[in-house]
Amino acid sequence: MNIKRPKIRNCEEKDILNAYTHEEYNNCIFNKNIDRNICICDTTFDSCIFNDIDFNNIELKDVNLLDVVFNNCDLSNKCFDYKMLDRVEFKNCKMVGTTFINSSLNDILFSDCNTRYINFSGSKISNIKIIDSNFTDSSFIESEIKNMELINVNLDNTEFLNTNLNKVDFSSCNISCTKFDMKSLKGIIVDSFQCRNLVGMMGVSVKN
To answer: In terms of CB atoms within 10 Å, which end of the chain has fewer, N or C?
Structure first.
């Protein structure tokens, strides 16, 4: 599946310490961490790159992301609920407990990310690609998903409930303890070993 890549133009280096509220940031690259707490709110980042930024000291409120790349960032426990993200890439990021509840996500990439406990409940997702990432204990409850590609993703104990996963291929993923309901199971693609596990979860015994 091809997803649209972020449209990154000629970026000017900026200090995230000077990212003020009620502004729009265009064509910026952020490379420097900060050592004190700040809050960024009511802000849009458009055509921006974040490299090696630890967001533990940065509170994000009402932040929209358009054509943004996060490289080696820590976004754990950040809240993107009810927000819009278009053409955003998360590469080698830590995002434990990050939430996208009731958000709108279009053309999103997660690659080599630790995203345990990430929450997409109630979100609308169009074109998402997840590669070599840990999505253990995550939630996709009542999510609307259109076009999802999963490659070597750990989905242990992840919940897919009341979510349409038709034609989503799980065959390269760990779904040993993944929770599906009947709606979510319909039309998914698994290998023969995974099929036996899924049947067992439903209380059905397979006779050899």
So the answer is: C
Q: Is residue 1 part of a domain?
A: no
Give the domain CATH number at 161: 2.160.20.80
| pLDDT tens digit sequence for 98-136 | 999 999 999 999 999 999 999 999 999 999 999 999 999
Structural domain boundaries enclosing 152: 12-201
Share of the chain above pLDDT 70, in %: 93
Which whole-number Å values give the CA distances from 97 to 40, 66, 108, 196, 208, in the listed order?
Answer: 19, 22, 18, 31, 41
Domain count, the chain: 1
Residue 44 maps to a domain: yes
pLDDT in tens, 52-91: 999 999 999 999 999 999 999 999 999 999 999 999 999 9
Largest Cα span, the chain: 65
Report how far Cα 44 is from the mean position of its chain's Cα atoms: 18
